[in-house]
Write a structure and sequence with these properties.
Elements: H1 2-9, H2 14-48, H3 55-60, H4 62-94, H5 101-109, H6 116-127, H7 132-137, H8 146-169, H9 175-182, H10 187-215, H11 219-224, H12 231-242, H13 245-272, H14 288-316, E1 318-320, E2 324-327, H15 330-337, H16 340-370, H17 375-384, H18 392-403, H19 412-422, H20 425-437, H21 442-448, H22 453-482, H23 500-507, H24 511-538
Antiparallel strand pairs: 1-2
Helix pairs in contact: 2-17, 2-18, 4-8, 4-10, 6-8, 6-14, 8-10, 10-13, 12-13, 13-18, 14-24, 15-24, 16-17, 16-19, 16-20, 16-22, 20-22, 22-24, 23-24
């Protein structure tokens, strides 16, 4: 008791506090320099390459113009459909009293666990000229071109939009709706006067995020686009096929524009978004008609999500679809003969290293910016979220140009670096938001009691952040397992990630082997997500 009183009466050690400030300042500067070297300088190197080519000639060419128009057309249409689709899906979960919500949500996020290129391939298997469903219904579907790109883009981007919109809807305040009901205001008027104003700014962020995802993706258009060529496909073909880095840099600069706009919109809306305090959690009222519609909608979407996975399973175990449907394990054996096992280990190794190091560095950066604010904190925050504005293809190209000839080029190190930077911003923001919700006086109270900042971090901050840390690791792992764009220019035959086998198999018309690789990536990601949720339950944190 006396010791406690002595600690309470003990003055704050200003020298210790000053030492922490100095050390944090040095650490902030070191991290800023680190990010400058591995993000800003490679990007500048790529952009400076534009001066070595005739950018005007490239931009004015018919091929570029057609690809640009195609990209804008496909991305705009896909974004509109995706956001509307995701909104009604999120509303069906958040506003109804249906059962099995967690199961439905699990199905909805499955498309996030496989590469976008797999969705294009799944559409071909299902709805192509010799597709499973095409043959069943006896039709002559034309899934190639704009139709296929839009369909595939919606399939792989709607889970992201759903999660973002659902997260907004589930924390909406019920007080305005309760007051409106008492006043007898019709439901449609409640939607236009309460729901829509609440969603307007967050939806702007969702729209730009989804548009950026789609316009910078080359997986779906490469597989199913046919002659409907988009800018990312042109960039991929010119750099991979013709090693034309100058033209790739010009296209990379164009692809940076929508990503940069999305980045700025996100920044503005974070500062001026909805900040209303939730007085009363939303009360879900039973509505039989709404529940029936919600069950039908969620069940239909779940079925559509599972169809590509079903098609991959069929392809994996048949001799040659559709000419020889004899059951066989030859495709699995062929994939492993072509080093699928080795490449799977490469991907898992990269993903694990990125998950642990990425989460650790993201936590440090978030703590320095959210809990130790100073003049450099804002700069560190901005450079930490810079990767949000850099598409994977652009990042990979900038790394290929900057690190070419160095001792890390084509090594596992550069693959880890590319994945770490490509996916860093979102986990960092997760932790930044989490730390911002913890009482800002915890460290000062600890100092008053004679408790060191290190003990405050390990005893208070980390335990309250463990759910977010697990989510950060999960995000890094899953995305590192399935990314293609960021590493397409950086591997060598010995450290090749398994996701890149899909493009090789598809190019050689080995769809059966490509389907098996897609399933492998999906199963590994499901296993990791399951382990993450199990750890959360053991640690008794919210899932």
């Amino acid at each position: 008791m006396n010791n406690s009183l002595q600690n309470i009466n003990k003055p704050i050690d200003l020298r210790s506090k000053s030492a922490w400030s100095r050390r944090s300042g040095v650490l902030k500067l070191a991290i800023i320099l680190f990010f400058t070297v591995i993000v800003v300088i490679p990007l500048c190197k790529m952009l400076f390459t534009i001066t070595t080519v005739d950018a005007g000639k490239i931009i004015s060419s018919q091929r570029f113009s057609n690809a640009l128009i195609n990209s804008l057309k496909a991305s705009s249409l896909s974004t509109i459909i995706t956001v509307i689709f995701a909104f009604f899906l999120a509303r069906a979960i958040a506003r109804s009293t249906i059962k099995f919500k967690n199961i439905f949500i699990t199905f909805f996020i499955l498309p996030m666990l496989i590469p976008s290129i797999s969705h294009g391939m799944g559409l071909i298997v299902l709805f192509g000229r010799n597709g499973i469903i095409t043959n069943l219904i006896g039709g002559d579907a034309n899934i190639y071109g704009l139709t296929g790109i839009v369909t595939g883009s919606v399939m792989y981007s709607f889970p992201v939009a759903f999660i973002m919109i659902y997260d907004i809807l589930r924390y909406e305040d019920d007080s305005p709706y309760e007051a409106a009901s008492v006043l007898g205001i019709p439901k449609i008027r409640q939607f236009t006067s309460i729901t829509f104003p609440y969603l307007r700014k967050p939806l702007i962020v969702v729209v730009f995020a989804v548009f950026t995802m789609i316009v910078t993706d080359y997986g779906v258009p490469l597989i199913i686009g046919g002659r409907f060529t988009t800018l990312p496909v042109v960039m991929y073909q010119d750099v991979i096929g013709q090693t034309d880095f100058g033209k790739g840099s010009v296209i990379g600069l164009v692809l940076l524009v929508p990503a940069l706009i999305a980045f700025l919109v996100d920044m503005i809306n974070k500062d001026k978004g909805n900040s209303a305090f939730v007085l009363k959690s939303l009360e879900l009222r039973k509505n039989k008609t709404r529940n029936i519609v919600s069950y039908f909608f969620c069940g239909t979407v779940s079925l559509l999500v599972l169809l590509p996975i079903f098609s991959f399973s069929v392809l994996t175990i048949v001799k040659k679809y559709p000419v020889n449907m004899t059951a066989t394990l030859d495709n699995i054996a062929r994939a492993f003969d072509m080093k699928a096992g080795t490449f799977l280990i490469n991907s898992i190794t990269i993903a694990i290293v990125v998950a642990f190091t990425g989460a650790a560095i993201a936590f440090i950066c978030a703590y320095l910016t959210a809990r130790m604010k100073s003049g450099m904190s804002r700069m560190l925050h901005l450079i930490s979220i810079t990767s949000l504005a850099i598409p994977g293809l652009v990042l990979g190209l900038s790394y290929a140009m900057f690190f070419s000839g160095s001792f890390i080029y084509s090594t596992m190190t550069i693959l880890i670096m590319a994945n770490f930077i490509h996916f860093f911003a979102s986990p960092y923001l997760m932790m930044y938001n989490t730390l911002g919700k913890i009482n800002e006086n915890v460290e000062d109270v600890g100092a008053t009691l004679g408790i060191s900042r290190r003990r405050i971090i390990t005893g208070v901050i980390l335990p309250q952040s463990k759910a977010t840390i697990i989510e950060m690791m999960s995000y890094f792992f899953v995305n590192s397992m399935m990314t293609i764009s960021a590493v397409s220019f950086l591997f060598n035959p010995s450290n090749k990630p398994i996701s890149l086998m899909i493009t090789n198999f598809e190019a050689n018309r080995l769809l059966e082997c490509a389907a098996f690789v897609s399933l492998l990536i999906l199963f590994v990601n499901i296993i990791f997500k399951t382990l993450a949720n199990t750890v959360k339950k053991i640690m008794k944190v919210d899932i």
